[in-house]
Amino acid sequence: MTFKNLLFVALLGLTFTACKDDDEDSSTTEALQLNLTGLEDLGSDFTYEGWIIVDGSPVTTGTFDVDADGNLSRTSFEVDAEQLDAATTFVLTIEPQPDADPAPSAVHILAGDFSGTDANLTVGHGAAIATDFTASTGTYILATPTDTDPDNEASGVWWLDNSSGMPAVGLDLPALPEGWNYEGWAVIDGTPVSTGTFRDATAADAAANYSGTVSGPPFPGEDFLNNAPAGLTFPTDLTAGATIVISVEPSPDNSPAPFVLKPLVHPVSAGAAVHVPFDMNNNAVNTNPTGTVVR
Question: Is the pLDDT of residue 291 over 70?
Fold first, then answer.
């Protein structure tokens, strides 16, 4: 065989090999469609990311944002067809932006198991928050135990029940997974003011930014006596239109305002008595995000 023929055969072999490698590396994709309601705008420092669970491991389906009206920046995502067909569960997380970690964060907000082509997504799924908060209850009193002035008792809120004559736990809340905290709020003249975050309703919360110098009871709560935020004056009167809220917050938190999950809410009645227990309204069905994913 001549040198020219040998060169032709070699080139033919290289061409065949290259084509074969290209075929082996190529993969097909399928569209994954999201239809979600109730999510909030996370701001510029965080984003939502979808994941499918394949053989027990998470595979990203892509990120998206949500605007102030709850509209998703993307609803369709191209995913490897073989992996999508093998997926058992879809999980939605909240991720920092930019995100240097390729793994999911601990902040799982929605999840659902695939049944055929669809999965219904809820906060109560075990791969999300694992509870829907619909059984949560709360009781609070108006009082300012961190100072000695008897004339400003309507300027503080404490989640405790004193109906037996002794202060007792006022919140019945499920345990939260990693990545989530509870936070108390008083919405005063339209401004939400935090009473602090907590994970255990039988102990004090993590902040006392506005309280007086006397130690408060060992339960979540706050006296609004000092260091009033801009636009407010402390002491205040919570019976003049305030609303008391327990929210569920991602950790790290995306905003100084309450997160979309607000399972317990109660408007303070005009002229409400101090040192008297008030039961909160369960608001979970109105604030829990939901949705479906279709593959």
Answer: yes
